[in-house]
Write a structure and sequence with these properties.
134 residues, alpha/beta, OB fold (Dihydrolipoamide Acetyltransferase, E2P), seven-stranded mixed sheet, 18% helix, 38% strand, elongated
C-alpha cells in the first residue's frame, strides 16, 4: 500500500511539472506567409512575400542568424516537391523569436535569385529582430 501511495505521489508530481512546462509554451504562435522570391546576398536573404492584401512585402533576414554554434534565429528548410515556398515567423510572448525560410533545395528554381554584392543591404537590415508587415 505504501508503494502505491509513493508511486501516485511521484506521478502526480511529474504531471504537475509537465502541465507547468506546457503553460509556459502556450505563449508561442506562428504565422506562415507565401514566398514570391528569395534573393541570396552575401550578408542576408532578401525575402519577397505575399501580404494579406496580396501586395508584395520585403524583409531582410541576416545570414548571421543561421549560425548553428550559438542560438540561431533562423533556419533554411528544404521543401518537398509540389509544395510552394513559404516563410514561418515564430513569436514568443508577442515578440519575434525565429523565422524559417522553406525553399526548394534546387537553386535553379524560379523562386531563387542572386543579388549583387554591390547592393547595400546592411543599411536596411535589422540584426536584432524581424520587422515584417502582414
Amino acid at each position: 500500500m505504501k508503494k502505491l501511495i509513493i508511486i501516485l505521489l511521484v506521478s502526480l508530481l511529474c504531471f504537475s511539472l509537465y502541465a507547468q512546462q506546457n503553460a509556459e509554451e502556450q505563449d508561442l504562435f506562428y504565422i506562415n506567409v507565401p514566398i514570391v522570391r528569395v534573393y541570396d546576398h552575401i550578408d542576408a536573404y532578401v525575402v519577397h512575400y505575399l501580404k494579406g492584401n496580396m501586395e508584395v512585402g520585403q524583409v531582410f533576414v541576416p545570414k548571421v542568424w543561421f549560425n548553428t554554434h550559438e542560438f540561431n534565429k533562423s533556419r533554411l528548410r528544404p521543401l518537398a516537391k509540389g509544395v510552394e515556398p513559404y516563410m514561418t515567423v515564430i513569436y514568443e510572448s508577442g515578440e519575434f523569436r525565429k523565422v524559417y525560410i522553406n525553399m526548394p533545395i534546387d537553386r535553379k528554381h524560379s523562386s531563387w535569385k542572386i543579388l549583387s554584392r554591390n547592393v547595400d543591404v546592411a543599411s536596411k537590415m535589422n540584426t536584432e529582430t524581424l520587422e515584417i508587415e502582414y
